[in-house]
Amino acid sequence: MINNKELQEFDPELYQSIKAERLRQENNIELIASENFVSNAVREAQASIMTNKYAEGYPGKRYYGGCVNVDVAENLARERLKKLFNANYVNVQPHSGSQANMAAIRALINHGDRILGMSLDAGGHLTHGYPLSFSGKDYQSFTYGVNTETGLIDYQEVRKIASEVKPQLIIAGASAYPRAIDFKKFREIADEVGAYLMVDMAHIAGFCCTNLHQNPVPYAHVVTSTTHKTLRGPRGGIILSNDVELGKKIDKVVFPETQGGPLEHIIAAKAVCFYEDLQPAYKEYMKQVKANAQAIANVFMENGVKVITNGTDNHLLLVDVKSSFGITGLKAQTTLEEINITLNKNSIPGDTERPAYCSGIRIGSPAMTTRGFKEEEFKQIGHYIIEALRNVDSVEIKEKIKASISQLLNRFPLNYELD
Ligand SMILES: *Cc1c(COP(=O)(O)O)cnc(C)c1O
Fold first, then answer.
1. CATH number of the domain that 121 lies in?
2. Fewer C-beta within 10 Å: the chain N or C terminus?
3. Does residue 198 share a domain with residue 305?
4. 91: closest CA among 292, 234, 225, 276?
5. Do residues 270 and 185 both lie within one domain?
6. With 0-12 CB in 10 A as exposed, 13-18 as middle and 19+ as buried, what is 143?
7. CA-to-CA distance for 147 and 99, rounded, in angstroms?
């Protein structure tokens, strides 16, 4: 168990920030779709003495001595990850999802080449070609979006843009897309225009390794992910492929081209995470994540609240708060924060609000599902959100809901030692 005793005595100032953050996590309903609560086993591994070790290179081929034990940990992470996604090649060293994307893109194409990714306002990620990201600066980037009526990816439209742009790389995957993505179709389009296909499964990886969503590994040239979202591991990135030759190239871009020494304590925690994800209980968890997202989506729709695409296939949903409550996404986010519900504003298809305000919110179920919430609790959250957003100016109503939320959370304690 990690109890932070020494920290408390040695650096009380810093310790207080951790303690306050722990209380914040305990006392709020966490609906940010990219967050989760890791197990104590994952936390023990990442707090371990593996943090002390320099291990540039890969297991068996390191630039420093004394790597025998971190080699064991990294090999465990690699073998478990290969098994989890049925992949021939993996790299577990990327420090984050963005670092994984940088390495994968650099391994596939050259500086100045064209990439086609989902636009940020349609749900894509910064690293898929956004102008402020390396991906928009080092490459010529083009985007596809979603149909503004249906909120869905229009594959004919993607095909049309791809045939005009003739990109060297197409990126599929998103941070705010509530429906299944057809990776097979993306690969067909990539083949038609002679492009590589990279799938970034950061948000939905937990569904992809449990057969609850198409696994992209057989279809994409390269697949990237984070490990801290649905996979429920430490913060970090991973790269997978079935192409072992391409893998050799990726290994060289991760180290030495874009990273130095790997975070072996995080890699140890990734190994624990993959071990957990291979257990039957993890598939049950992911099924519950989806059932919970659908339960709250249904409460909204039954009460006349607009849910983009009229539901969800995964762990997240987008709610149009502008047309449903006459408020911006930012107002909804700050109002819900007052009653201890944490989530983020999000643009919706065809959004006319400026990005700082947005017309929608994004709601995710992974974190509270880990905490033990089932359909009943998610329906309850849906009712709380509707009541609060219909009464944004009523201090009395907000106080009442906040008290109910506190009672609800008391029934589901966070499974951590106090620290
Ligand atoms: C979260 C996310 C990332 C980036 O992950 P970081 O670890 O924050 O760098 C990349 N791609 C997608 C689709 C994501 O949702």
1. 3.40.640.10
2. N
3. no
4. 225
5. yes
6. buried
7. 30
Q: Which CATH number does the domain housing residue 371 bear?
A: 3.90.1150.10
CA 73 and chain centroid, separation: 24
134: CA distance to ligand 1 center in Å? 14
Q: Where do we find the tokens 């690293």?
A: 127
Is 54 a known active-site residue? yes
Evaluated on CA atoms 177, 91, 260, 43, the torsion sign reads positive
- Ligand 1 pocket mutation, candidates 102, 120, 200, criterion most atoms within 8 A of CB: 200
User: Is position 28 within any domain?
Assistant: no
What digits encode the pLDDT tens for the residues 18-63?
999 999 999 999 999 999 999 999 999 999 999 999 999 999 999 9
Which token pair is 321?
A: 């708060």
Question: Which pLDDT tens digit goes with each residue over 227-283?
Answer: 999 999 999 999 999 999 999 999 999 999 999 999 999 999 999 999 999 999 999
Instruction: Count CB neighbours of 349 within 10 A.
Output: 21
Query: Do the domain assignments include residue 288?
Result: yes
Instruction: Tell how far the Cα of 232 is from the centroid of ligand 1, in angstroms.
Output: 14
**Closest among 215, 228, 210 to 281, alpha carbons compared:** 210
> Residue 364 contacts by C-beta under 8 Å, 6 or more apart in sequence?
31, 32, 33, 34, 35, 293, 315, 316, 343
Domains held by the chain: number? 2
Residues 329 and 398 in one domain: yes
What is the CA(294)–ligand 1 centre distance, in A?
23
Q: Is residue 139 part of a domain?
A: yes
3-state secondary structure string across 84-128: HHCCCEEECCCCCHHHHHHHHHHHHCCCCCEEEEECHHHCCCHHH
Tell whether pTM > 0.85.
yes
> Looking at ligand 1, which residue's alpha carbon is closest to its atom 15?
175
> By residue range, what is the domain housing residue 308?
283-410
- Which residue, of 277, 311, 333, is where some domain finishes? 277
CA 36 – CA 252 distance, rounded (Å): 31
Q: Which of 35, 56, 182, 188 is catalytic?
A: 56
